[in-house]
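Please check these two lines:
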Amino acid sequence: MKLMVQIICAIALLVLLVNGQRPNCWRYYQEDPETIDQVYFPHEKNCQYFYQCTAHGAMRMKCPPGMHFDKENHQCGRPDDVVC
């Protein structure tokens, strides 16, 4: 029984850690579910990645090779031209 409680706690902690790293798209989905796929967030550590909201939550995406995500314009661009 004690082992089962430890396993459940470990799984809950893992879920919290993973979900804490991704943006929360639920608010945007509630506001307008038709345009949820047009909501983007910058990745917290890597400029080549970004998050795109979906009806199922945030999905990590990657810019094309040599490009970085511009957090002001919400699109990929050349590294010298974007704010990362």
